[in-house]
């Protein structure tokens, strides 16, 4: 086994050297892919922010407005119900 370990079996490299080279290559490629991913995520975020700025629509603000209008609607519905109940009571006095 020790003889095989020291023999140049893969090109001009021993098994240990070839393994070390393979691990290094995989590590380099993994770092490259991770760097590309971070760059792509940054680019995507920048483009999304630019799109949001150009569209003039802020989703957080829209959700706040939607909730506010929902509260207005509920308040008006309650007002109409109260007015209807009052008119019904007045009409039943006769």
From TrEMBL:
Pfam families (UniProt xref): Flg_bbr_C
GO cellular component: bacterial-type flagellum hook; extracellular region
Source domain of life: Bacteria
Swiss-Prot/TrEMBL GO biological process terms: bacterial-type flagellum assembly
InterPro entries for this protein: Flg_bb/hook_C_dom, FlgK
Xref: PANTHER family: FLAGELLAR HOOK-ASSOCIATED PROTEIN 1 (PTHR30033:SF1)
Protein name in the entry: Flagellar hook-associated protein 1
Compartment(s) where it occurs, according to its Swiss-Prot or TrEMBL record: Bacterial flagellum; Secreted
GO MF entries: structural molecule activity
Keywords, in A-Z order: Bacterial flagellum, Cell projection, Cilium, Flagellum, Secreted
Family: Belongs to the flagella basal body rod proteins family.
Domain Flagellar basal-body/hook protein C-terminal: 55-92
Major localization class: other
Gene encoding the protein: flgK_3
